[in-house]
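Q: What does the assembled structure look like for these inputs?
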Amino acid sequence: MAAVMPQLATPPAPSRLLLSGNEAVARAVWESGVRVAAAYPGTPATEIIESLARFPDLHTEWSVNEKVSMEVALGASMTGARAFCAMKHVGLNVASDCLMTMTITGAYGGLVIAVADDVGLSSSQNEQDSRFWGRFAHLPILEPADSQEAYEMTKYAFALSEQYETPVLLRLTTRICHVKALVSVGEREAHEPAGFIKNPQRWVMVPAHAKARIPGLFQREETLRGVSETSPLNVLEPGRDRRVGFVASGPAYMHVKEAFPDAPILKLGFSYPWPLEKMRALAAMCDKLLVVEETELLLETEIKAAGIACHGKDVLPRMGELSPQVLSPAVDRLLGKEPPPPAPAATPMKVFPRPPTLCASCPHMGIYYTLSQIKNIIVTGDIGCYTLGAGHPWNALDSTICMGATMGVALGIDKGRGEVDKNKRILAVIGDSTFMHMGMQGLLNITYNKGNITVLLLDNNTTGMTGGQATPASGRDIHGQEAPRVSLAKVVEALGVAVEHIRIVDPYELPVLFKTVREEIKHEGPSVIIAQRPCVLTDGFKPFRPYLVDEDKCTGCGNCLDVGCPAIHVTRRDKVIKPSGKEVELAFANIDNQACTGCGLCVQPCAPDAIQHVARHDIPIHIVKS
Amino acid sequence: MKSQAIIAGIGGQGVLFTARVFTEMARLKNLRVSGSQTFGMSQRGGSVMTHMKIGEFDSPLVGEGDADLLFALDCMEAHRNLPYLRSQQNGSGALCVVNAPDQTAFPDPRVAGLLDEMGVIVHACDAAAVALRMNHPMVTNLVLLGFGASREHFPFTYDEVREAIEALSGPAQLAVNLAALEQGRALCSNSGSPLSVIAS
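A:
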């Protein structure tokens, strides 16, 4: 259950709402009187700002990247306004430059940074433990364990931030962000900004000013250590079964509580600075101490350094999500017991995996189909739906690292390649939103350093992977209202690409696309091909009449399957021996016209012209096939 | 009441909305509830599943061998999530409600046999075909809900499902949603034995 919050007397709850952790944070941000909230979309944090955008009386925005969102929040805090920004774990890497100096200036208006770790990599390129940022930047961390706590700790975070003039990190994980539960909520309190006060010693971080403030930073950390030591957010539950005591925070606490309801647990809600004396008290009352952390061994190391014997990652996994089922056998091993055999469960026979795919009619398929047909190329990729181009059937991407990395990596390959790669052509693929997030600098670097690279800028007019958020090039703001629309072609030109090598193509028109790519990869120097088509999940997408396969005409060549559209399926496989004696595999295909939106990508490679529009009167007959 | 359920399907089938209905039903009964979802890349036609825990639980995750109910909008996803189902050794048999286009949800006799041994009761119907016939393929999940809720051992009654749908549906969708529930219930009236499919 949610712990009692200090300092803030929550008024009697007027209502209970069913909220995800993200929605609970958003509600609390709004209630706390925040005036500015900014973020760049990123799983699992996206819905925080999406929910906030529906509340009145505050400015919410999609910033172009996480660093900018943090700077916006800091600026608002400088005026005395309460401010908030949210990001996924890798977003904080981007924003860390701001963070590491912002900790020296401190906050004026309450300033809270929510950072959501994608534990288990459901939709990320890596796994990270954001608690390290608290220690690194000497900032307090609050870690809720459920939606109610997410709501309450967010409200407390603003009070804490203002009391100690410190930014506060609110550390979330997927099992907070995406778990829905009932939350008691309150009403919005107004917080009128006190006003900006000119104070260069505080806000102008030249060496002399920063040096003068750093001792205060350490002093603040020490004060917060004391606050943490007595904070009711750090609860020592004595328990009855003293064989193993646990230290846990966030969802890990919930797993411990469910698996070992009678054990002593130190539940950390105020997890940095950590309450060392409470840890000592726990260690003194139990035979063994187990530190349960998602995901790194941060506390374990510190507890050991303090001379307290404990266990942790010696019995628990180093990566991925924990659960009661992961904990139980680990504790058994710690107690020298054989874990009991698991209860009989239905082991499924082989089930085919169902990985994420590009949508039917996704314009990216035109790009990857084209790239898969071109030999002797190296293609660097980036973060977004279009990362799926690395998979079957295209196998068209050769690298994916982090937001915007495609440009730098491509230039590095260009400059670093030796004789063996000299005849290869280098392409860099990037989406429109990623380009504006962190790709523009990479392109500037390519033009400035005379890279011989063709950039494919996939402009689907949205941030697709996170659910279709607006971008500066979509002409809409976070509320769906009209916003200035930046021209990607003009940006590219301004970044130094020659006008004649900025080509705009329709990714549905395969012959033109193919010809354009062939022309531009022959050009010695930077070129950018902008492929424009709206994402099929956005309002801008208009479906056409669906197609089906005339099975009498289908020769089983399988060309249409190379497009990679999930609406196309194989109905029959066969083998034939050609007159040359060569054995050829045939795959006869048809199209699910429920899923097909008539983009026509598969029509173009179909040799026997077997893919045809569904006649209107055929549609209902074909649908009701059961 | 304490109940653990896995809701499974493919991105776009309405797994998240179905989970929303379960949480709403729990809310209306004043029960503690948590519904834990994994999404992100899964919306691109990938496997999607929700862990539902209703009653006094702490961890939001359902363990393997712990689920009282597997509610699957797709046969293959039902198959994939079978390890979550509880065996009757841990109480009465668990329930598996599944949208199945073919004659049986688990055509492999070894799987059917194992489920039988575990005391798992399987209720399958071709909810997708019913929804298509209604010209609203999007309501497959609600047809299956109406079907499941009219069977024994489902954690909620049909009326509780209907009340939740009424609370959650916009005015434009309400009629269709309720009709879908009703169609699902109608499938149920000519009920068969465990492991059988209600022909649509």
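The longest strand of chain A covers residues 568-577.
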